[in-house]
Amino acid sequence: MTAERVEIAILGASGYTGAELVRLLASHPRVRIGALTAERQAGKDLGEVFPHLASLALPRLVKIGEIDASRFDGIFCCLPHGLTQAVIRDLPRGPRIVDLSADFRLRDPALYEQVYGRPHVATKLQEVAVYGLSELYREAIGATWLVANPGCYTTAAELPLAPLLRAGMIDPERIVIDAKSGVSGAGREARLGSLYAEVAEGIHAYGVATHRHAPEIEQCLADFAGRPITVSFTPHLTPMNRGILATIYVDLAPGAEASDLHAELTRAYAGEPFVEVLPFREVPATRHVRGTNHCRIGVHPDRRAGRVILVSALDNLVKGASGQAVQNMNIMLGLPEALGLTAVPLFP
Predict the structure, then answer these.
(1) Residue 25 pLDDT more than 50?
(2) Dihedral angle computed from the Cα positions of residues 175, 179, 184 and 189, in that order, rounded to the nearest 10 degrees
(3) Long-range contacts (CB closer than 8 Å, 24 or more residues apart) made by 256-265
(4) Which residue in the list 77, 152, 220, 295 is annotated as catalytic?
(5) For 161-183, how does the pLDDT look when each residue is reduced to its tens digit (9 = 90+)?
(6) Where are the domains of the chain?
(7) Architecture of the domain delimited by 153-316
(8) pLDDT grade, residue 192 (50/70/90)?
C-alpha cells in the first residue's frame, strides 16, 4: 500500500470499540476516516453520541447500506457478535477487513455453533480468516484480507502463555487463568449487570467454566503447543472502566526454572513495541497501561516448588480490542506497525 493516506470505514461506530478506534485513528498520520456507521444513531454526528469526540472533523453517522464499501482501503467491523458474519459475507472483496466481534475467531463451525448457540452463516470466510494476535501471527496477518481480532481476555492470556508452550517449558495440562476485567468489556448496551449499583463496591466471577473466550484461548494455545489444550479459565468483573489483569498459574516442565520462563518471554518479545516483560519478580498493574496498546507481563515464582505465577495487564479497549485492530490494519496495509498507537499511559 503506497498511497499517502488510506481511506477507512468503521462499521458500528456508536459502541465503545468504535469510539476507541476513532480516538486512536484521529492521531494516525496515514489514515482518513471516510465513513462511520450506526444503524440506530444514523443521521447524528458522532459527537452527539460521544461528546469527547465532538472536536474532531468526522463524517456523520449513516447506515451500512448507505456506504460504498468498495472505495475503502480498510474496514473495521465493530458490530455485535452474530451479526458481523453476514455483513462481511456480503461486502465487496478488495478492502482489508478487521472484525472486532467473535464471529471469525473460531475456525471450526461446529465449535462456533456450540459456543455461541447459532450456526455460522459464512463458513467459507471462517476458513480464510486469520486470528489477529499481532505479535504471534504477524506474517499471516500481512498476507490476508480478513482478520479476526482477538478478545481482550484472550490477548492477556495468550501473550504470556504461547511462547512458553512453544518452548515446552510448562505443563500444558495444568494451566489456570484467573482474569479481571473493567466494565467497558461488556459493551455500551444498557444491561442490569452493568448498572453502577450492580458493579460498584464489589467484584464477582461470571461465566464460570462456560465463558466463550475459553475455546478461543485453547485454539490459539494449541497452535503453539502442537497439541489440544484445555485450560481452567474464570473471568471476574471489577468496578473499573478499563483494564484486564490476568493472573495465570502454570506448572514447570521437568528441568525448567522460573527464571527460564522469564528469559524465554524476554527473548520472545525483544524488540516488540507493545509487549513489555518486566524484570523478574515484578508484576504489572492495569493503571500503568491505561489508554495504550501495551501489554505488560510479569513472571514470579510461586512459594510452591515447581509452580510459577504469570501476570499480564492491558487495556481491554486498546490492546484488547481497538488498538490491536489498528495494529493489525497497519500490518495488512503495509504501514509501520506502531502508527497511531504511540500514546503513553494515562496516569493517575
Answers:
(1) yes
(2) 60
(3) 256/169, 256/170, 258/299, 258/300, 258/301, 258/308, 260/169, 261/164, 261/169, 261/170, 261/299, 261/308, 261/310, 262/299, 264/163, 264/164, 264/167, 264/169, 265/160, 265/163, 265/164, 265/297, 265/299
(4) 152
(5) 999 999 999 999 999 999 999 99
(6) 6-128, 153-316
(7) 2-Layer Sandwich (3.30)
(8) confident
152 is catalytic: yes
Q: Where do the DSSP E strands lie in 260-320?
A: 275-277, 295-301, 307-314
Report the mean per-residue pLDDT for the chain.
Answer: 95
Beta pairing partners, 9: 35, 75
What CATH number has the domain spanning 6-128? 3.40.50.720
Concatenating the DSSP letter of every residue in 123-158 gives HHHHHH-EE--TTTSHHHHHT-SEEEPPPHHHHHHH
pTM (2 d.p.): 0.95
- 1 — pLDDT class (breaks 50, 70, 90): very low
Q: What is the mean pLDDT of residues 14-43?
A: 96
Predicted local distance difference test score (pLDDT) of residue 193: 76
Of the candidates 14, 9, 22, the residue with the CA atom closest to the CA atom of residue 322: 22
Looking at residue 8, its amino acid is: I
Angle made by CA atoms 197, 200, 205, in degrees to the nearest 5: 105
Q: In 3D, which of 9, 30, 69 has the Cα closest to residue 334?
A: 30
**What is the sign of the dihedral through the CA atoms of 249, 253, 256 and 260?**
negative
Burial class (CB in 10 A: 0-12, 13-18, 19+), 347: exposed
Grid cell 501471527 in the structure block, residue: 137
Bridge partners, 97 (sequence order): 75, 146
Percent of the chain beyond pLDDT 90?
Answer: 92
Enter the C-alpha cell of residue 348. 493517575
Is 141 within 8 Å of 230 (Cβ atoms)? no
Each residue's pLDDT tens digit, 53-65:
999 999 999 999 9
